[in-house]
Amino acid sequence: MKYKFHEGIVYTVICNVHMLVATRNVWDQFPAVKELSALQACFWRGISEGMDEEELMNAIHLPSKMNLDTVRQRYHLFVNKMVDEGYLIPEEQSC
After folding, report:
1. What is the spatial distance between Cα 85 and Cα 81, in angstroms, rounded to a whole number?
2. pTM here?
3. 33 Cβ partners below 8 Å, 6+ apart?
4. pLDDT for residue 95 is more than 90
5. Would you give the DSSP letter of residue 95?
6. Rounded distance, CA 63 to CA 21, Å?
7. Which of 3, 30, 38, 45 is in Cβ range 3.0-4.6 Å of 88 for a Cys bridge?
């Protein structure tokens, strides 16, 4: 499944810290800053590049040698949380 990002959320890295920053027009809907782990940042960047789940799994699993099942489980936890919190919107639900 493909996702789009909520407008007003910007991904950035400052001093090697990965963050989602809410712009002023969405401050009432999101925390000003949400920190991401390095793995979550990889997921976010992959989604932003239009990768599907399998492409993302290969891009992360192969170079890192992380267990594929672990990567897949963390990906689903991350995506579900981001959808629940409104940061990601499944494309099938978007207009």
Report:
1. 6
2. 0.86
3. 19, 20, 21, 22
4. no
5. -
6. 28
7. 3
